[in-house]
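job 3f2a | input accepted
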Amino acid sequence: MPKLDIIHDAIKNALIKDGWTVKAPYVIQYGKTTLYADNMTFTFMC
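job 3f2a | predicted structure (46 res):
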């Protein structure tokens, strides 16, 4: 997994406090290629 940037935890915590669901890291594998999407976020509108 790649190195996280310096503000990773601050942004993740702010999103969680605001009601977002954070899945980090989100790993996508296709064949021999691996991609890492950091801080994949979800929110639900009601």
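job 3f2a | Strands lie at 21-23, 26-30, 33-37, 40-42.
job 3f2a | closed
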